[in-house]
């Protein structure tokens, strides 16, 4: 439609005729990038009447009148097109510049092996733009081409474009909509014709770092032949790249850097960047290990921490531990970075930098990468931008090639979803690598957004060193066998230019080998750790039963209750929310019992009152999926928000609650990372429905349940998983309790099913106030949020404590009891109501609130009055092959009186967690309750 507007104007303007093509081409340039046309024309096009795309037939009279007036009132435009042929050529030159900005990367020299079959891009040929050899000696205006001159010969422009966009760097940034960001990148690339300048000392340093990268791999290959090490060889430039990132970050004020990466090159990073002692690594290869902690993990999953000297001061480095599920570490790193930033008061990411290092197949193939990109600018998850490096060895995992692993030209195309700039760089050109690294770091610092570096390299060996790559990639590996190493290529280049001599280059090799032989740290920038801001010392060496401060004086509790119920008078609440807050006021004065939502809010209030930090995320967590929390109040007049828990008093701890992106895997991994870097506070992830955690099972399996045993990484993350059978079908009933119990061992985490508001209050406080730090898995309620029997008193909050097991609450004569029913969660209230309805006095009901670690002593105490009973039943809502029965019945039996029997009452085994029909659900529920209460 806009082109139709242009034609309508040209038909009526004095600039029609020979000038029409020129103006149309100029307008096309303006549409692609307003910066390509000069300021006068830009103002003309900016002032064009806006045309609605929804109108099928747009009248052009307004446009024609506008340009007729413009033609009468201005003379400078007609002067600029006095020679149509010359001006048409000028536009073509600008189009050529634009083509290189958009597509120059497709002709860049990116593949060290020269195997890429690149399609020729016709837009990059001057002839495509009707520019001939005769035009090459003509002077043209360069437009916005940031070369530092207003006019140049076409030959000079063409050569500068090729050097800038088709050398060892291929820049993709024209997909970005922000003009300032594009202009910034253009200035950085075009002003130096795509090539950085480095001092002699910097070049020798790059060579030294390449020598170290290659030297370690060769040393390990000779000393431990055939051992898996996931060699970096071919991508050696990663080491100088990461060190340059850290140096540049430190110079610009960054104080902490958190790195996440998979296997390839990890051992090299540990030794040559973080400063792990080579001897320690050699001992691991030799099978020596310290048996004082956990089960351990393989070498190429290990993390490390150190301080690193930069020109701007020391920087603390942390390499995150990583399982074989490669890309899952990325959101873990983001979460750790966000926690560090929050603790330092770093609002925009200036002090803490995340770096993630990806594989080419993994970055395109694993969905958590897209989830993490999507989180990058979300309010609850942004970290001021991440520098993302892809070690692109062009082969994927074992035998794959790009045609099998993705559907896009580049593995990095996924980054375009968040308009991140992408810099492809040939890993055999270390100076281009360093140049791009500085640009990427500066872009991140300037715009606080993600940036991607695609380090195009190769893999000298197979997927691991025992693999035989020639079996599936014969041509590539014939080429690799003959290809000089990156260190050799750069040493030769520096020798040829006279920067170093052969003796110096050889000396670097010998010095590094000698340092490895000595086994001590080989990183000259390494410093003893002083800067890390995470102090886990207070949380080490504690057990479950340790005393912890719990009592809150009731006057203080009631004062906090008043404060969390207050909001500005101008903040108009929705009617249902207003009623909820009115009910909470009634709870404070004792007119109503305390419900679940109020108890939970009071737990948070008491914690922030003691200056503890609280972070809660999840889908709908601000209000609560089931409309019970309402920690965030939405003004019905202007949609502004108010958070009472964040406004208790000036010296309180931070309270943050965020509605998360619609993801489980990346979000839960983020919160795990946050909790590992924030031991002093409460970090909560809440599933919208408990079974949605299925989408994050890799986080649960490989981090939450096993991170302490594998890596010694403690974590106090709390997971709230709504669970309960209310006839809502198979996807909204079970939080898959059985899966967590199956993962429980060695006191690795807690699994709790609280059944009263007081229990959730004490459970949340215990998770923070007790010095033990282990994950807490909570089967949280749905219907119990408003159940008339599921209430507590203020006394139970102020003076009580968490009860791992709760005995019979009705006044039964224990001598008349013939059966004891053990249960957990919502089914307790179904049993209680039916027993009261039946007026039974011969069945006692005991709740087990903590399933793991199993509270044997507490359960025995609850059963103390029933030592004469031999008939015990475990009752659950879940099918027999699910829930706690299979995983925990041995624990239940261990707490029973001698000679007692334990039987099962519940749904039969089922492939599905729940039925989909309400009538069937009710029939099943009645049957299991009757089976538990009926004594044969």
UniProtKB/TrEMBL annotation:
Pfam families xref list: 2-oxogl_dehyd_N, E1_dh, OxoGdeHyase_C, Transket_pyr
Fetch the Gene3D superfamilies from UniProt: 3.40.50.12470, 3.40.50.970, Multifunctional 2-oxoglutarate metabolism enzyme, C-terminal domain, TPP helical domain
Q: Which GO terms describe its cellular component?
A: cytosol; oxoglutarate dehydrogenase complex
* Any one GO BP annotation for this protein: tricarboxylic acid cycle
| InterPro entries from the UniProt entry | 2-oxogl_dehyd_N, 2oxoglutarate_DH_E1, DH_E1, KGD_C_sf, ODO-1/KGD_C, THDP-binding, Transketolase-like_Pyr-bd
Q: GO molecular function of the protein, one example?
A: thiamine pyrophosphate binding
Q: What is its EC number?
A: 1.2.4.2
Keywords in alphabetical order: Oxidoreductase, Thiamine pyrophosphate
Name the coenzymes or cofactors required: thiamine diphosphate
Residue ranges annotated for the Transketolase-like pyrimidine-binding domain, each copy included: 594-787
> Does the entry feature the keyword Oxidoreductase, yes or no?
yes
Q: Does the keyword Acetylation apply?
A: no
What this chain does, per the record? E1 component of the 2-oxoglutarate dehydrogenase (OGDH) complex which catalyzes the decarboxylation of 2-oxoglutarate, the first step in the conversion of 2-oxoglutarate to succinyl-CoA and CO(2).
Task: Name the family.
Answer: Belongs to the alpha-ketoglutarate dehydrogenase family.
Report the PANTHER family cross-referenced here.
2-OXOADIPATE DEHYDROGENASE COMPLEX COMPONENT E1, 2-OXOGLUTARATE DEHYDROGENASE
Q: What is this protein called?
A: 2-oxoglutarate dehydrogenase E1 component
The record lists the organism as Photobacterium marinum
């Amino acid at each position: 439609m806009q082109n139709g507007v242009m034609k309508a104007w040209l038909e009526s303007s004095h600039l029609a005729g020979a000038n029409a093509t020129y103006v149309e081409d100029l307008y096309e340039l303006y549409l692609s990038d307003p910066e390509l046309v000069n300021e006068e024309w830009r103002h003309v096009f900016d002032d064009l009447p806006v045309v609605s795309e929804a109108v099928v037939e747009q009248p052009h009279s307004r446009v024609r009148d506008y340009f007729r007036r413009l033609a009468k009132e201005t003379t400078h435009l007609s002067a600029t097109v006095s020679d149509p042929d010359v001006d048409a050529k000028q536009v073509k030159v600008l189009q050529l510049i634009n083509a290189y900005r958009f597509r120059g990367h497709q002709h860049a020299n990116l593949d060290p092996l020269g195997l890429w079959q690149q399609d020729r891009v016709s837009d990059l040929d001057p002839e495509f733009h009707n520019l001939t050899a005769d035009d090459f000696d003509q002077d043209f205006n360069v437009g916005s081409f940031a070369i530092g001159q207003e006019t140049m010969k076409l030959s000079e422009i063409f050569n500068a474009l090729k050097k800038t966009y088709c050398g060892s760097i291929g820049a993709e940034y024209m997909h970005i909509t922000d003009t300032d960001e594009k202009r910034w990148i253009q200035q950085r690339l075009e002003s130096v014709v795509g090539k950085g300048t480095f001092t002699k000392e910097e070049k020798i340093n790059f060579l030294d770092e390449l020598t170290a990268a290659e030297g370690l791999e060769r040393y390990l290959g000779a000393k431990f032949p055939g051992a898996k090490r996931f060699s970096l060889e071919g991508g050696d430039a990663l080491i100088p790249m990461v060190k340059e990132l850290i140096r540049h970050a430190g110079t610009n004020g960054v104080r902490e850097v958190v790195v996440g990466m998979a296997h390839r090159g990890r051992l090299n990073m540990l030794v040559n960047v973080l400063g792990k002692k080579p001897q320690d690594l050699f001992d691991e290869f030799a099978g020596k290990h310290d048996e004082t902690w956990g089960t351990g993990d393989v070498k190429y999953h290990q993390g490390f921490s150190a301080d690193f000297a930069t020109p701007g001061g020391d920087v603390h480095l942390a390499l995150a531990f990583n399982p074989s599920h490669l890309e899952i570490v990325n959101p873990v790193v983001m979460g750790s970075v966000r926690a560090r930033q929050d603790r330092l008061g770093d609002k925009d990411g200036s002090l803490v930098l995340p770096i993630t290092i990806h594989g080419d197949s993994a970055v395109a193939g694993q969905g958590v990468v897209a989830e993490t990109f999507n989180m990058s600018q979300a309010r609850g998850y942004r970290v001021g931008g991440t520098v993302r490096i892809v070690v692109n060895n062009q082969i994927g995992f074992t035998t794959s090639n790009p045609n099998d692993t993705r559907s896009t030209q580049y593995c990095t195309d996924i980054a375009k979803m968040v308009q991140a700039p992408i810099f492809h760089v040939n890993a055999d050109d270390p100076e281009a690598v360093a140049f791009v690294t500085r640009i990427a770091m500066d872009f991140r610092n300037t715009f606080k957004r993600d940036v991607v570096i695609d380090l195009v390299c190769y893999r000298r060996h197979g997927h691991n060193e025992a693999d035989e790559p020639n079996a599936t990639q014969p041509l590539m590996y014939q080429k690799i066998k003959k290809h000089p190493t990156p260190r050799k290529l750069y040493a030769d280049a520096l020798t040829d230019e006279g920067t170093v001599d052969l003796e110096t280059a050889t000396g670097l090799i010998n010095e590094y080998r000698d340092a490895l032989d000595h086994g001590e740290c080989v990183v000259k920038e390494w410093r003893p750790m002083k800067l890390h801001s995470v102090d886990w010392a207070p949380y080490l060496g504690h057990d479950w039963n340790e005393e912890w401060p719990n009592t809150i004086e009731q006057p203080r509790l009631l004062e906090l209750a008043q404060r969390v119920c207050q909001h500005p008078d101008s903040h108009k609440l929705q009617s249902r929310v207003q009623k909820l807050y009115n009910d909470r006021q009634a709870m404070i004065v004792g007119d109503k019992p305390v419900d679940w939502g109020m108890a939970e809010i009071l737990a948070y209030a008491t914690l922030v009152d003691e200056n503890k930090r609280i972070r809660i995320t999840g889908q709908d967590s601000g209000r609560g999926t089931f409309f019970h929390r309402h920690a965030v109040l939405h003004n019905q007049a202007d949609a502004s928000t108010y958070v009472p828990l964040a406004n208790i008093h000036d010296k309180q701890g931070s309270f943050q609650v965020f509605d998360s992106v619609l993801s489980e895997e990346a979000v839960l991994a983020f919160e795990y990372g946050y909790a590992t870097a924030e031991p002093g506070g409460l970090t909560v992830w809440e599933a919208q429905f408990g079974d949605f955690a299925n989408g994050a099972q890799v986080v649960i399996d490989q981090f939450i349940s096993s991170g302490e045993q594998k890596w010694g990484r403690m974590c106090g993350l709390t997971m709230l998983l709504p669970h309960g059978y209310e006839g809502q079908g198979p996807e909204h009933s079970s939080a898959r309790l059985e899966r967590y119990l199956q993962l429980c061992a060695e006191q690795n985490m807690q699994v709790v099913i609280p059944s009263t508001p007081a229990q959730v209050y004490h459970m949340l406080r215990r998770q923070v106030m007790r010095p033990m730090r282990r994950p807490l898995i909570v089967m949280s309620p749905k219907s119990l949020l408003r159940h008339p029997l599921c209430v507590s008193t203020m006394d139970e909050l102020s003076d009580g404590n968490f009860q791992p097991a709760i005995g019979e609450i009705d006044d039964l004569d224990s001598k008349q009891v013939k059966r004891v029913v053990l249960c957990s969660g919502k089914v307790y209230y179904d049993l209680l109501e039916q027993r009261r309805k039946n007026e039974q006095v011969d069945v006692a009901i005991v709740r087990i609130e903590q399933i793991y670690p199993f509270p044997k002593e507490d359960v025995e105490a609850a059963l103390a009055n029933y030592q004469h009973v031999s008939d015990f039943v475990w009752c659950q809502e879940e099918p027999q092959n699910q829930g706690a029965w299979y995983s925990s019945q041995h624990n239940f039996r261990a707490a029973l009186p001698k000679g007692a029997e334990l039987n099962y009452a519940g749904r039969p085994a089922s492939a599905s967690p729940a039925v989909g029909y309400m009538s069937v659900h009710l029939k099943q529920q009645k049957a299991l309750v009757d089976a538990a209460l009926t004594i044969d």
